[in-house]
Amino acid sequence: MDGEGIRLDRPKARRRSPLPRWDPEAFGRASERIARFLGTGRFIAWMTAFVALWLAWNILAPQRLRFDPFPFIFLTLMLSLQASYSAPLILLAQYRQADRDRVTLEQDRAQDERSIADTEFLAREIAALRMGLGEVATRDWIRSEFQDLIREMEQGRGAPALSDEPDG
User: Fold this and answer.
1) How far from 119 is each of 79, 114, 123, CA to CA, in Å?
2) Which entry of 55, 78, 131, 149 is 20 to 30 Å from 114 by CA?
3) CA gap 79, 85 in Å, rounded
4) Are 68 and 58 in contact (CB under 8 A)?
5) CB distance 58 to 66 below 8 Å
6) Using alpha carbons only, how large is the chain's radius of gyration in Å?
7) Rounded Cα distance, 79 and 73, in Å
8) Distance of CA 85 to the CA centre of its chain
9) CB 126: neighbour CB atoms within 10 A?
10) Cα separations (Å) of 128 from 32, 123, 131?
11) CA–CA dist 139, 137 (Å, integer)
12) Geometric angle at alpha carbon 37, from 36 and 40, rounded to 5°
């Protein structure tokens, strides 16, 4: 064997293709720009002006300058060609938008799941705090205890005090 045979430790060299290469993302972005333009009032206005000029030229121009006589076969061919390219470009743009929407939906769903988990955690923490507050002295409870003590002291003043010390 010649020493350079088939090497399994190296990736296989790419074969050259006679077909041109293109970036599918660049093609997709271009198709979206075209589809966005095709869906605007500006496109409709330009297309209407183009067709009106075409018809006016081929009806009103001198006979020797007309290039598409009355049945307007060439105009029909051009409009059909434009429509045959527009439809796939619009579909491609819609597919790309659907893919973006799907990714956004998945991200929103994941965010919602995290929000639900956070909400459940906070609800458990609040419940634990409420249970813990049942064992803590509240302001109202302390007030009622003070008021009870004050009443007991006032009742104690009205009664004769018993003292272990001899009078004076």
Assistant:
1) 58, 9, 6
2) 131
3) 10
4) yes
5) yes
6) 44
7) 10
8) 30
9) 10
10) 54, 9, 5
11) 7
12) 95
Distance, in Å, from the CA atom of 48 to the CA atom of 65, rounded to the nearest integer, reads: 22
**Which residues, at least 6 apart from 67, have a Cβ–Cβ distance to it below 8 Å?**
58, 74
- Alpha-carbon distance 133 to 141, whole Å? 12
Residue 93 CA to residue 33 CA, distance in Å, equals 9
- Choose among 47, 48, 70: nearest CA to 58: 70
5's tokens: 């045979």
Give residue-wise pLDDT tens across range 82-122.
Answer: 999 999 999 999 999 999 999 999 999 999 999 999 999 99
Specify the 3-state DSSP secondary structure of 21: coil
Burial 11-21 (b: 16+ CB within 10 A, else e): eeeeeeeeeee
Confirm if 130 and 138 have CB atoms less than 8 A apart. Answer: no
Residue 162 in this model has a pLDDT that exceeds 70: no
Distance of CA 5 to the CA centre of its chain: 52
